[in-house]
Automatic annotation (TrEMBL):
Residues 1-29, 105-125 are annotated as: Disordered. Pfam families: Arfaptin (PF06456). It is found in: Golgi apparatus membrane; Golgi apparatus, trans-Golgi network. GO terms for molecular function: phosphatidylinositol-4-phosphate binding; protein domain specific binding. Keywords: Coiled coil, Golgi apparatus, Membrane, Phosphoprotein. Residues 163-363 form the AH domain. This is ADP-ribosylation factor interacting protein 2a. GO terms for biological process: intracellular protein transport; regulation of Arp2/3 complex-mediated actin nucleation. Residues 110-124 have a biased composition (Low complexity).
Amino acid sequence: MTDSILSKAATMEIPINSNGDSRTAEDDGLEQGAQIGGSLDEIVGTLPVTMDLQQVMVSGPNLNETSIVSGGYGGAAEGIIPTSSIKGPAIHVNPEYFDRRCGNAPKPAPSMHHSNSNPSMMSEEATKGVAVEKFDSMKKWSINTYKCTKQMFSERFGRGSKTVDMELEAQIDVLRETKMKYERILRLARELTNHFYNMVQTQQALGDTFADLSQKSPELQDEFGYNAETQRLLCKNGETLLGAINFFVSSINTLVNKTMEDTLMTIKMYENARLEFDAYRADLEELSVGPRDAAAMVRIEIAQQQYQIHKDKYERLHSDVSIKLKFLEENKVKVMHKQLLLFHNAVSAYFAGNQQQLEQTLRQFNVKLKPPGSDKPSWLEEQ
């Protein structure tokens, strides 16, 4: 019984898995052999920890010459059994087993997960950068709005000072008043165009009716024929006058809703810049009369920089408004001189019945008439 157990313990292989764990189903038999003749760890424990596995296997004791001291499970019989008498395969040991038992287990390979996380980290940093930029922009806008609102209420209640250019303000007031009057002229000219267009259409329908009756009433053929010819001539001259009035309306519309409106937009930007300039000027004046400690000096320096920035903006827009007002006045005089002369000559020639002078007036001002029916959609568009 004892011999069979020792033979099994001496000839048993020790499998080691990839994780360095040697606990298998066969470990129970090995433990039984270790209890009989001593564990394999006690043999390994006598070796230096830093020795290489190959050196251990070369310089270590020959297992064929090693004796195993055995003891019974309950008996008193003891003896020395030479291992040379035990036949069987040699013991194969996984080097990783010794490394792990001696605390020299190799470190796991570094994970490559960080390479995959770099794009996500960069995306997070970019998102944080955008969020910070938006927050700073919102902060600046809030501070600027607060200062401008405070300055606006101070001016309305007479508590704050206001930068005023009397000459420029007078020109701006004149422009606003002129725009209102020109808008009235534009509205009335459009009403005249609509009414006159309806009259021309009525004259054309009346002339067609007279011409039809001249064919069906032999006794009144000449009378109906004369009136039909007169209405047709009036309709033709009316269409010519409509071309002149439409050109007049188009030019006034461009002057009012484009040229003047562009100047008024610049004026609005100038007024906002003036309000910001006064707001930061009042802020700098308030800080200047306060304490002069280190923190206050930093705030004063920042306020001085903001004041200079808004001062430059205000002066630049002030210059732009002055130049645009000057050019607008020159352009207005030039345009209105031409358009008023066209309107007068065309209306006079129409009501005088001078068809040649009416056509000459349109040629003089390069007014091109649209052919009759050009405003109507084609048969392809109607489909």
